[in-house]
Design a protein that fits this description.
167 residues, mainly alpha, two-stranded antiparallel ribbon, 6 helices
Length: 167
C-alpha cells in the first residue's frame, strides 16, 4: 500500500480496485457482523468493524484525505481533477459551440491543456499512480477517465456511509 493509504493493485485504474474491494469489504463485513464471526488471516484477526473501517479509509482517501489533499470526485472539495478523459466533458457545450463537431473535430479539444469546459460533477476518475501522485492529464486515461466500474461501487459505499455516519 502506498504511503497515503490507498489500497494498491497493479494494472488498470487504481480507484477501480479501491472502490470495488472496499465495497466487497463492506458487504463481507456486514455478513461477518450478522453471523457474529471473524476472519483469521495469519496472525491478523479481521472482524466486521475492521473491514468496514478499512472501506471507510478508502472512501476518505478518494474524497481528499490523501497526500495531495485532492478529491478524485469531480466537484467535491476545493481541489479535484480538471482534465477528465471524457468526451462530453472536454468538448464545449452546444450553447457555446452550436456547430456540429465530428469525431475528428474533437481532437483539438482532447489534445488541449485547457480545463474541461463541462465539469462532470460527481464522477470519480481513475485516481493516483502508485506513488500517490496525479498528473491531471486528459491523455493519461488510466488516471483521468471516470468509468462505471469505478463509480458504481463507490455509489454503494457512499450510500452505506451516509446511512451509517458513525462507521
Amino acid at each position: 500500500m502506498p504511503a497515503g493509504g490507498l489500497i494498491f493493485k497493479s494494472g488498470g485504474s487504481k480507484l477501480q480496485h479501491a472502490t470495488t474491494l472496499s465495497f466487497l469489504f463492506l458487504v463481507y463485513g456486514r455478513t461477518l457482523s450478522q453471523a457474529n464471526r471473524v476472519v483469521h488471516c495469519g496472525n491478523i484477526v479481521a472482524n466486521s468493524a475492521r473491514l468496514i473501517q478499512f472501506a471507510r479509509s478508502q472512501v476518505d482517501y478518494i474524497l481528499g484525505s490523501n497526500p495531495l489533499g485532492m478529491s478524485y470526485m469531480v466537484g467535491y472539495g476545493r481541489k479535484f481533477p480538471q482534465r477528465k478523459h471524457h468526451r462530453a466533458s472536454s468538448l464545449p457545450s452546444v450553447n457555446q459551440h452550436p456547430e456540429h463537431i465530428d469525431c475528428n473535430g474533437g481532437s483539438s479539444y482532447y489534445n488541449s491543456n485547457n480545463l474541461n469546459p463541462n465539469l462532470l460533477i460527481g464522477a470519480v476518475v481513475g485516481g493516483p499512480d502508485s506513488k500517490d501522485s496525479y498528473a491531471d492529464s486528459r491523455a493519461d486515461f488510466v488516471h483521468s477517465e471516470p468509468t462505471t466500474y469505478i463509480n458504481a461501487p463507490f455509489v454503494g459505499l457512499l450510500a452505506y456511509f451516509k446511512s451509517h455516519p458513525s462507521q
